[in-house]
Amino acid sequence: MGLIKYIKEEMQIIRERDPAIRSSMEVFLYPSFRAILHYRLAHKLYKRKHYFWARWISQRTARKTGIEIHPGATIGKGLFIDHGHGVVIGETTIIGDNVTLYQGVTLGGTGKEKGKRHPTIGNNVMISAGAKVLGSFTIGENSKIGAGSVVLSEVPPNSTVVGVPGRVVKRDNVRLPREDMDQVHLPDPYKRDVINLRKENDCLKGDLKNICDRFDRLEKMILDINKTMESKENKDK
Question: For the chain, where are the E strands, in sequence order?
Answer without folding.
Answer: 68-69, 74-75, 80-81, 88-89, 94-95, 100-101, 106-108, 120-121, 126-127, 132-134, 138-139, 144-145, 150-151, 159-162, 167-171
